[in-house]
Fold this sequence. Notes:
Number of strands: 20
Number of helices: 21
Largest sheet: 7 strands, parallel
Structural class: alpha/beta
Amino acid sequence: MLVNNDYIAYTAKWETSSRPGSDDTWVWKVNCDGTAQGTAPLLSLPNAKDPVSLKVNGWPSDFVVASPSSAAPDSFTVNVINSAELSDTAKLTSDFVSLIQTAKQADTSSLIINSDVLENITTDKGASLGIIAVKEALSAALATTATSNISVNDINALSDDAKGWTQAQNLILSTLAPNATFGWSLSIGDFAYATHSGKSSVWNAASKATADLLDKFALYQGASKADFIAFTKASTSASLTSDQWHNALQYVKQVTDFVQAPAILSSVPTAQATTYFMGNTAGESNIRKAAHNNIFAILFDTDSASLTSKIASYQSIKVPLYYVGVSSDVTPLTSIASLNSDLSGIETVMDSQVFLYETPASAWVPSTIYKWADFLTGLNSMHNVGVAGDKFWLVDSTVDDATNAKYAKVAIAAFLSQSMQETIRFDACDENNWSEVKYGAAVDYPMTASCGQLGQKYADYGTHPVSGKDHAYSCPRDNRMEQTAKTHAKWYGAPAPIFTTPDAVLAEQGLLVNGKVGRWTNAGHCNTVPTAIDTSKQVFERDECKQYVGQKAGSFIWDGSDESVEGCGWWGRGVIQTTGRQNFGTLNHFVGRSHVDPDTIGTTIDGTTVAAAPDSPLYADLDLCSNPGLICSSEEHKEIKWIAGLFFWVSSVQAYDNEGGPYAGWNYYAELKKYVDEGMTGTAFVDAVSGIVNRGCPDDHCPVSGEVHAIDERRANFKLVLQKLGLNPQ
């Protein structure tokens, strides 16, 4: 029996040179950490579905940047006993006394626990420190300070070792300073100076050991858990380059993702890091990048004139961390109670009879991805809050409630008629790989389907054809992005989820052939159909026949038949596939955590006047430029896959304007009202919106782009939804 690097035990069927578990020459025996067969090990690179919450008591909803003299929530470092003195019970008792006194005076401050203990025991998890008189010393300290808040049972639950000592710190602060927040200090180590190909390299070099220590010591679990992690960078160590700071921030994100706690950068050397984080201009700032890596504040170690000036400028362009407006779950969708009741009362009908997808066996079953409740949540946000003043239109204040109910239902049906055709019928959130030679691809099912299909280049969406400049709202190119789609086709041998990753990652694993990637083949039967997969790995890292749940055949072929998937993370996502850097960027600027250069606000770039982002964006906790995959992965905001489509509808369908063109007279609102007022007859209205969505004009056949795809299906969808909503289209 052999155990691989993931602590999974296998036996070989016969003599083989392959890695244990990588192919059908091995038989699985047991996951040594107790996890289920096929799933990710407990200690594995986090692939978080949602960002860590950056809400910390006492801290604002915007990212904080501060120097010693600038305004910021109260925080201070508590220097506790170091590892060399832990064996001295008297010193340990004295240290507990000091911490107890500090905790009683903490009020609402944020306390950073500083000691060399965690740094020194990362490898051996405290074994080298041996027995520590934790219970004896803490009991004595409580008696000395006349403190009765901590019970004997709480003390006896601690162990007399390094773990017990760390948990004693948590117990004291969480019990005696209930209104304060606290966290452990960790330093950014030498790993940051090395060259790393990607996420796995940083994880294996540093994050894995740190995450393992924090997990084994349970410092961020249970009733006494710490609130944040404070990461420091010593001013005595060499400055970090931009690439090295990227490594450091990857480390921060991986550790905080693992323990699900936010981070603060504390005692950051002003002389070394001001330019990296604050930039020479607002557009060069890396504050948004820090927030993406689960950081809610940066505290610089010294004052400087340059830093003071940059902090002052930052106050007018703060980076938001989360939405602080009224939640949609407490706001009625409309002012028409009967309409709201109609819509909320048909959840079962919509989920079981309308939101259906077609299986490989040609059966129609309820979608596993798209749900009516999530749609209503997204609709509420886009109707009542909207984006930069633009909202999903449902009612006309000049007409009666009965007419408005019809208007609203027709607007909903029009939107859903497109959603059902574009994605719901495929049960897809991410774009599938359907590239084939017959559609112009170099090979069938190339890995570069993620870069664009039908000859498109999604990363180029948002580049002006004349000036060559990026559109004002385009997400920046990101050649470091590592993403695997969440959804995929489900037929026999269907291609695996599409993905993007740097060339350096693939080269390090020996997968590139002459610097190029390859393709998917649907040949080769899988003897065992996986019911679970290791989602901590990118799809190309997963074992053969374990690329996705339900895989019956197929595999990757690395034959150099295609180019590169580096920087190719802009494939379609969401209910009406949001695709390309410009579309993701526009959505991110107005709905998420904006990436747009503040200095461009109000200026005109290639004909686009740059509007300011909302003061409190609906999804300020989501950075869709740094992680466009959140549209499909988010569990906290399941409605975001709908929001992406609703935003497209508001900005492209409702706002359709062909001034000076052949469709100059077409107006969404007028046409919708006309359809209702004239008895809901014919298909002209649904054909027009289908044309805008599918071909770019309000017609069933557009002058340049041609005939609308699946026009009959879109018409049938429209009619079905209207009927389920209680209307009678003719």
